[in-house]
Amino acid sequence: MPRTRGLHSRLHLLILATLLPLLVIGAIAVWNAAQDYRHSSEQRLQETATALARGVDQGIEDNVNQLRLLSLLAPQLSEAAPELQAWERENPDIRLIQDDSEQARTLPSGLLYDARREGKVQVSDLFTNAITHTPEVAIALPFDDAGGTRVLTMVQPSNRLIASIMGTGNNQQLLTAVVDNNGVIAARSLSPERYIGKQVPDWRVLQRSGGKHGLFDASSNEGLPVIFAFHRLQAAPGWTLVVGEPQQSFQARWQQPLLGIIFGGIVAAVIALLWANAIARSILLPIRALVQRSHGVVDNLTHLPDPQPSNIREVRSLQSSLSGTVDALKRSADEARELARDLKDSEQRYRAVAEAGALVLWQSDRNGQVLAATGWRELTGQSDEHALGKGWLRRVNEDDLPQIEIALEQSFTASKTGSLDVEFRVLDLHGKWRWLRARGARIGHSLSKWAGVLEDVDARRQAQARIAYLALHDALTSLPNRSMLFEKLDQALIAAQRGHHSALLLLDLDRFKEVNDSLGHPTGDRLLQEVAQRILACVRGNDLVARLGGDEFAILMASENRMPEAAAALAARLVDELGRSIELENHQFAISTSIGIVLIDNQARAADTLMRNADLALYRAKDEGRGCYRFFEAEMDTRMQRRRQLETELRTALQQQQFELHYQPLVDLRLRQVTGFEALLRWNHPQRGLLEPSQFLGLAEDIGMMLSLGAWVLRQAAHDASQWPEQMKIAVNLSVSQLAQPTLADGVEQVLAATGLAPARLELEITENALIANIEAASAQLLRLKQAGVSIVMDDFGTGYSSLGYLRAFPFDKVKIDKSFIRDLGEQSQGSAIIGAVSHLCEKLGITTTIEGVETQAQLAQLQEEHCAEGQGYVFGRPMPLAEVEDFILQWPARWNPAT
After folding, report:
1. Cα angle: 29, vertex 32, 33; to 5 degrees
2. pLDDT for the residue 79
3. pTM, two decimal places
């Protein structure tokens, strides 16, 4: 059917078509005016930037002229010169620095040299005063003196560059900044204390702009959209003055004049539309009256009002002809209603059937007695007659009968608009319970009968049951999950108050991560499934086994009279069963489990507390060797609280600089000379005194502090060693966390560059266990550092499982033999033989050997026979603070004479 439009809309379209050319012309005029206003605003902002840049250039030139005057008035630059003293009193925040004074060292490197070489004024980039931490800018003026070319430098706070131009009545919404040659903010009109010294956010955009001046859109340091105008400074090549205005105020300035134009156009359009509406109403009112009279005929109204005569000839003719057709239309309407009444019953009967595909079509009376059931044989295997009356209820699951009776009673006794909708299970022809949905509605003249369908909703019901199951079970092992465990724990706590005691066991698999890392997650998943089956084989049928996630499991034991003994017996069975090797995919897996146990008695109060206490017991079991079980004890909570207190103190210690380094000497055993020192960390605890690393490094690794702590040790050790004689090396230990960092080499190179320490003087010590945990990630980083000249040392050699293999796999510069081999030196021959064999092997490989833990002269004498190159231990010197290192180096020749 073609789309139709009303007469009212066509009249409006006619007027709009007349106005359209005028609207287009007006829009073009507004667009041109907007472009002109915007160009004017941009030109004004650029002129502001140019004027301010000239002001800054003039300020720099004034400073240069002052320097020239001062160099003429006081050629010797004596501090007692009255002209110089007077000038300093007038400018207390400006410093004058002579090129031969001590303060000249605080100036940026290369400034004085460039001034002498080029023979002209040099303006430095932004730098920070080391004493006052004030951002400053230096202007260096070369001048000729009797002794040659000298340089007088004026140092002033960087924000003075714009101080003179900011009091000239500038718009407070404008942001003015001066940027040095590196894109660093040297002066800023708004919040200078927050942003001076920081990189300009859009420095690359400013560099790409080119030219002496220009405009670009960017964001301020506060993150606001801003339009910037820039102008290059003449007095400081490479420097730029930038003036920014928020986009909101900039847009408002050029958009506001357009409002009058737009408002006038809107008013004109509104007047035209109102006039069109008035014309349309005069035409449409009589026509609408005729339409309403026609609707009254269709609705079989007995009294139809006569319309007011129209003054339009065509409309009055239409009114006349309508009166003659009213009677004919009323007769046709009566006949149509009678026909519709006859068809309504049929329509209602099949409307419910058409809404969805049905297994059974049924009809019933108002009492719920089934009169017909088409499809009952295909569903149940019984004939349709078995469903008549109440016979269909005999195939319904008896658990669903009550809700069916309630639904039938509510639907059949409800108002005429009521409907039936209920779900239940029916025994189908295969002998399985099948979920169906019965829906129905009233039919007939008096709505005294019902018709409906039975739909198959079995798949949806099973999906809902599956979702409910997964919400409380682990998808991998099909065991209950944490949510169900906590529900059962709440029930166990209630039962415990009535004297039914139970226990909670928390299990964690040992060495499971090695399986995941070496063979992949699919193998790890199959291993977890096997572990779940073994756990289920150890418990009773009424015990609850849950998987909490990862390799963590929990067992909630059912009530037991002898609960502590029963829990211990179950834990012992689990340790034994899970300790047996597991074979999967031709691999033998030797894992074990650690178990924490907490008893649930009438003292227990909350499920969260039970889980926390079980976790504390599990932590104790892991701490005491793994592959065992431990019951929760109250002192465990106290011990954990002490650990948490130490953790808090440890975090505070790094912030408050409570750590310090002690240094233990490394001695060349052939020449009896000190070759360097190993940096050893100490914690100067406010209450507990000086703490050894063994008392806190393990906790620092657990809480993720080793990266920041290790970085501090490396930086401090390199700084201290840079003050020692050049032949002295410094050895620094790397942690597991540091080795795992992909930026390890970058960090070490940055420390060397910052401290000026030569790479050849730095030795990085790595334990075998740390290398095992990060062999792939660490190898590339260590090789890069070795190529840069840093020495790589294997520490505690001989305490791992594959030390000799690592000597072949990685080119170490030095090997430190663990002190356990020298402890019984002289009493047993094994230690001496091992030290000699390792020393000989390393000598063949070109690797230096150092023996740790040398404490007696007898051990030292025997080590010389084993050809060890280097030694470390109390016989040479104990770890000492930095203040004692210099005296130790000076006194060493007197203590150890190579001739003795």
Report:
1. 85
2. 58
3. 0.40
